[in-house]
Amino acid sequence: MTLTPRPPLFSPPAVRLRLAPESAEGGALRRINGVWWPHSPDLVSELPGLFAELPSAWGQITSVLVDETVWSPFPGRVRVADQVVRLRRTTAQRAPSTVCLLAPGRGRWDLLVVPPAAADAEVGRLMESMAFPLEGRSEGR
Fold this sequence. Notes:
The chain is of the alpha/beta class. It has one domain (29-129). The chain is 15% helix and 26% strand. It has a seven-stranded mixed β-sheet with strand order 1-2-7-6-3-5-4. A hairpin with a 2-residue loop joins strand 4 (77-80) and strand 5 (83-90). The longest helix has 11 residues, at 43-53. The termini are far apart.
């Protein structure tokens, strides 16, 4: 009799993140640096996975600014990857919603946040848009 190993009781889902390619010129600034599709509106549980997938060149993210209407209530600070991260709220509703990541001395990165319940087709279109430069694109391309 052969025993088949049992699957783990919980395996964390993959992070759904698509970052825009870095500019060949190295100096072009983007308004949106990527698209993030969290699995839930629980910011505290979603951040560790997101941070694990960010490029090391972005440095240590110490502050995150989000639209509070998109996320479940969250504390002002949270420990992520052995560092304290300040979570800041904004009530300015933006369409589409974004999350702003700040790393002192390194920069600021803005990610478009796709609602967790969004349809796969819409998400696919947004994720694919990150493969091409955003500036100078005409609608419908």
